[in-house]
Amino acid sequence: MENNVKRQLPDDLMNELNLKPYETTDIGHPEEQRVAPKVRVTTGQDKVVDSLEQVIKDNLKDGMTISFHHHFRNGDFAFNKVMDLIIKLGYKDLTLAPSSLTGVMNDKIIEAIKKGVITNITSSGMRGSLGDFVSHGGLKNPVIFRSHGNRARSIEEGEIKIDVAFLGVPISDPAGNANGQEGDAVFGSLGYALMDAQYANKVVLLTDNIVPYPNTPASIKQDQVDYIVKVDKIGDPDKIGSGATRFTKDPKELKIAQMVNQVIVNSPYFKEGFSFQTGSGGAALAVTRYLRQAMIDKGITASFAVGGITKPTTDLLEEGLVRKVMDVQDFDKGAAASMAKNRNQQEIDASWYADPHNKGAVVNNLDVSILSALQIDTDFNVNVMTGSDGVIRGAVGGHQDSAAGAKMTIITAPLVRGRNATVVPSVETVVTPGSSIDVLVTERGIAINPARQDLIEAFKNVPGLQILDIKDLQKMAEKQVGVPKKLEYTDRTVALVEYRDGTVIDAIKEIKD
Amino acid sequence: MEIKTTAVAGTLESSDIQIMISKGTNGIDIDLESEVKKTYGDQIKKVITDTLKAYGLENVKVKATDKGALDCVIKARTLAAAQRATETSDKPDLEVL
Predict the structure, then answer these.
(1) Domain of residue B22, residue span
(2) Whole-prediction pTM value?
């Protein structure tokens, strides 16, 4: 079957998994029944245990679904500790349902797949050796990629039923009141893990830092937690996020950032109380710097910034240029440390952040969202999942959610990367539909979605902003790098990419080498 | 044109290509390493082959390590390697250039 962004989807899998093809970004007003977890009742006196192995033996059965969060990023010690034991104990047919997967987990997952321990995966993304392994058909069942908002929705609606959640935290008390803000391995917001804490049947905290009761502020609360396992070291603080954020000196990125700033400042949304989301790429960080100056010059302050937060954003908070930071995860040490001292840096869970099926998520209050792309095509469809070689090397993240919610979504991308064109006739994998993308900014000029005549009107007389047809940008790229040979895939589907409402926006096939 | 020595041109920086040329016996034999081999491998080999042939070389062993170079870069590096291998750098064939 074909969906509304003209992607062929495998009928057999779609029927088997009872999935529907993507139709529209419009969510409407469906009435959804949420699920609730099973609760093993206790007074909570003996939650602290020494043996992780015993906890696993007592709670995990073959075929169950386990989950983790990725807030420790590449400094994560929790995942491999747990998976080592699960593999050793010989479990089979588990579904792995983490908020996302980081490189440090790759080897262990591949080992678990090869031994039949893990047979299903749903994640925001995957990179490196694991992406390569899956793209070459290493996992029998297709991976389901979900955005952060979609994962929240799927958990709430029972599509992901977490049997046991293993959640690493840098601090907890003996009852399970925990946060991500104190201890040795601080990562700030626990946003994605809060879904697991609320909806998993069993919640196991792992920590190297148990403090006297009660520990506040409590992001994860004692009434949600079954066990607390004391470990030697829960994470490597130096690998959780980059240290001091350095601004890019790449002239291409700086030019893109300047143009993004021009787009924002000249848009109808740049007024007192506007709101924005930026990512963590070089250009995005530079945008924050230009935007800061524009806000000072015009005497404008922002009502909030949301998303993956970086230090340049928390600096704006401390300067009073941004009134609130709505924080679902922190990308660097500065932003993580800031949460503990700034009460205007509000921790938000994944549902509050981006869930399409609730009573209104933060992304719906967004004016401007600045997002990146591996590829964007002449229909404005964006790929953040597969590389130009067709191999999985990315993540949906909050891309679909933020793009759908924001009044103006800007994609920043260099026209080409090395010999690969970024603006292409048709993206390798559609992740975010073009109908939710408004402006593309490249170093050679900007393109505006023809559906947004109001923005074309707003930007047409701005000095230094060259507005081009996206097809012309695509041709410029092609002239530089040439026409690539079409990639060859087998018929086998290795992954399905869901849209935020749970419909399927694209299928990823096994790459032929 | 005759290959007198093994020669190298280019670096392993991104957007460059390193070409190593030595004497061959069996036509133009290219060992290509590239991250864009699947999509641009044939084109890269064609540029190298055409450039070498235009320089009058028929039997060459080529080791090419590509880091995403554009065609103009590939041609320039191949020519430089060919000149060094044939020891003609001081009297380049202007017709070919």
Answers:
(1) 7-91
(2) 0.95
